[in-house]
Here is the input.
Amino acid sequence: MAVIGDSVVRLRSSAVPTFLLLWAAIAALGLAWAAATPMAASPDEPAHIIKAAAVVRGDWLGTPTGRAGFTEVEVPSGVAAAWSWTCTAYDETMPASCQGAFRNGSEPIAAETSAGLYNPVYYLMVGVPTLLTDDPRVAVYAMRALTAIICGFFFAAA
Here is the structure.
């Protein structure tokens, strides 16, 4: 039973299992995408990776830079290198091996993001993996997995 305004809405007994099944199915599709897509395969993924790592560390907005639409934040050095991973983002024929070696690093350094002024709520949730590991690959895959689970929940709820 759910209360909406002054009305009581009774959920059918099949609503919860249906919701859970939809959530799991949609999240599974998102998880498959997360595992199959090379790091930073979309041109703006590095901006969101950097924003999430900054927000979870308390740097919610960053400071303006000389580049229009960009802010500077402090993030672990492994995550700050995200802009160098975009070799597949602009050429679909490029193999993921073009990205080279990923470097672990937890020392804070300055990085630019074009997502600096975006609402920080989502980034606060998905930035948590960057606190748990200094391996950027593990952190980004975990961030993608969290995103798939969160999006799956909202799609199923809709």
